[in-house]
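Quick one: structure tokens for this chain, please?
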Amino acid sequence: MDACNALIVDDEADIRELIEMTLLPLGVTCLLAENLSEARTLLKRQPYSLCITDLRLPDGSGLELVAHIQKYYASLPVAVITAHGNVESAVEALKLGAFDFVSKPFELAVLRNMVSTALRLNRSNTERPSENRPILLGRSPAMAEVRTLIAKLARSQAPILINGESGTGKELAARLIHLSGPRVDKPFVPVNCGAIPEHLMESEFFGYKKGSFTGATQDKGGLFQAAQGGTLFLDEVAELPAHMQVKLLRAIQERAVRPVGAPIEIATDVRILSATHKNLATLVQDSIFRQDLFYRLNVIQMRMPSLREHPEDVPELAEAILNRLSQELSGTPPKLTPTALRMLRAYSFPGNIRELENILERAFTLCEGDVIQAEDLLLPTGESTSLRPPPAIVPAPESMPAETVMPVDFEPKTVPYPSTPVVSDLEGYLENLEKAAIMRALEATRYNKTAAAEKLGISFRALRYRLKKLGLD
């Protein structure tokens, strides 16, 4: 690690000395100040790589120093030392722009981890890998504001709550915050809190020891251990049950977790990012979500705009999606006709970007040649204000030819539907019907894909795409 300077501000000489001794092995030269006035004087004399300040100083508050540094030395990471359990002061410091905080009495390992992360901030821009880096598309003012906020939030270690409707790209934003910050070379671990069975949550988050329960044949680390040194992204955090909210709060406050069956806690160094499409404040009022956990997760709030708030970005997004789909099949990306593009821009997209992807994926398989017509877009009727949307495509029942297409206003009572049992997994049922129709066409044409596509009434590219999608290639 390159030599660097740190400004340590604390009115207790033994604390200043302890911090200095802890940072010396890291190659950090410490300059010491015992009050706010001395700190401001030392800041003028030379540049620093890091500042650590106590919140309670003889001539003022450490919060004043945080605000001063943010105003005059914005690129300088500043961490604060708080009294144990003083959550309000820690949160206030983070909101003012503090990089991170540590509570007294602090563990030396926690202090070293915090300092190491802070010192990587100024080097992260040059050390960050660029290959396969995701991109936040959109040139609208709304998306430009999001990109600016991501760059600012990447320099902090404050917990961030990302709000937004489903399909707006909350996980992408979280991943970009991670990739733009000092933890870029460490893991980014996303977890959907609503997808883990309640009885498995504790062992999934914190891990378990061998023999702690039936089936625990060996030690296993949890999500916190997997994200060590990096970022843990809690998607759909509102779905956490009450007992896990308590345990998560303790893990965040103590920066330590206790695996199931373990006698002691294990220190962790993890940044927490979370996301939800629900209103957590309302859930707190309804006593569904813990207020203290809400305050710890919602230190800084970030909102992802819905697609209908920036429809001018639809053409760029559509082009990127079609390019990705064509690359998967090594083909030529199709173009949208002006009418089709106008129809997309006029649509409200309740499912946001994820719905745009689904619509274009279907259009990609249905279009003829390399042009997507308005008729290829499967938009619900009544959503377009200036254009009449095309009829939606509904799956053909098993007794009908595979190429049969029925408009929305088709009257089902005139169709001789076969008597079938109630289907609980409609998507899987329809997928099996599609597989069966494709296999019949392939067998009838002795696996000549061109002939099979013609028999099915679809393009060769559409057939090739469906084969890949259904795992039949």
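The chain has a mean pLDDT of 83.
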